[in-house]
Write a structure and sequence with these properties.
Oligomer: single chain
Helix content: 25-40%
Distance between the termini: 38 Å
CATH class of the largest domain: Alpha Beta
Largest sheet: 5 strands, parallel
Shape: globular
Number of helices: 8
Bound molecules: zinc ion
Radius of gyration: 17 Å
Strand content: 15-25%
CATH topology of the largest domain: Rossmann fold
């Protein structure tokens, strides 16, 4: 394989730090997030306290961190990572997620996780693609944060494809869909996904992990559909 040219993925100008993948100018120009609820990650009127929806019916997870809404260029890069096997994107995307988390960690006083898990693919879909794109993000993150990354969270069956179902059907479709090959009791978990849309998958997994004794669950994603 040829070495990756050290060019910004966005403006194609040479980079000072090749592994960053994006220049500081393009990094500053990424779409800004509106004010988001710290709990559910949806638009809200305060960064500090949970929104009205969360006060009535909070999600199972404790905090959500995302890089941007579902727009270009992130949406485009996620698509490339998923379908075109552009795995060289992984370090840049993982770094964007790290920067977003560090910002949230400082400003929202989040717990530092000691275990990273990624939303599993059904083994057959993972096999077809050859890799789980979310695991590609989790590996460098675990290294930088000095914490454990495990692929011990499994999806037992595929069920119907989530995007073809209504919100209620999605929840029913996921019940009992997950299993664990790792002990999570007392652990602070960051659950990583590329895109969060309705949140029904991460909701079901968070519920499951907390029922297995996890101390807390944060959801980290590249894009949150707002
Ligand atoms: Zn650039
Ligand atoms: Zn909320």
């Amino acid at each position: 394989m040829l070495p990756m040219p050290a060019l910004c993925w966005l403006c194609a100008l040479p980079l000072r730090f090749a592994h960053h993948g994006i220049c500081s100018c393009c990094l500053r120009g990424l779409p800004k997030l509106p004010m988001l609820c710290p709990r559910c990650g949806l638009p809200a009127s305060s960064l500090r306290s949970p929104c009205g929806r969360c006060l009535r019916e909070p999600p199972a997870w404790q905090a959500l961190v995302c890089v941007t809404g579902y727009h270009a260029p992130l949406s485009h890069w996620i698509h490339q990572l998923k379908f075109s096997r552009v795995t060289a994107l992984k370090v840049m995307l993982a770094r964007l997620l790290l920067l977003s988390w560090l910002y949230a960690y400082r400003t929202r006083l989040l717990t530092r996780p000691d275990l990273l898990l990624c939303v599993p693919l059904h083994h057959r879909r993972g096999w077809q693609r050859g890799y789980n794109q979310t695991a590609l993000l989790a590996q460098p993150l675990a290294r930088w944060l000095g914490c454990e990354f495990s692929q011990g969270l499994r999806r037992h069956y595929q069920g119907a494809l989530q995007h073809q179902l209504s919100a209620k059907q999605r929840r029913t479709n996921l019940r009992g869909a997950f299993g664990l090959e790792i002990a999570v009791r007392g652990r602070h978990i960051a659950l990583i996904d590329d895109v969060i849309t309705t949140g029904s998958t991460v909701e079901e997994i968070s519920r499951f992990l907390l029922a297995q004794g996890a101390a807390s669950v944060q959801v980290w994603c590249l894009c949150r559909t707002l």
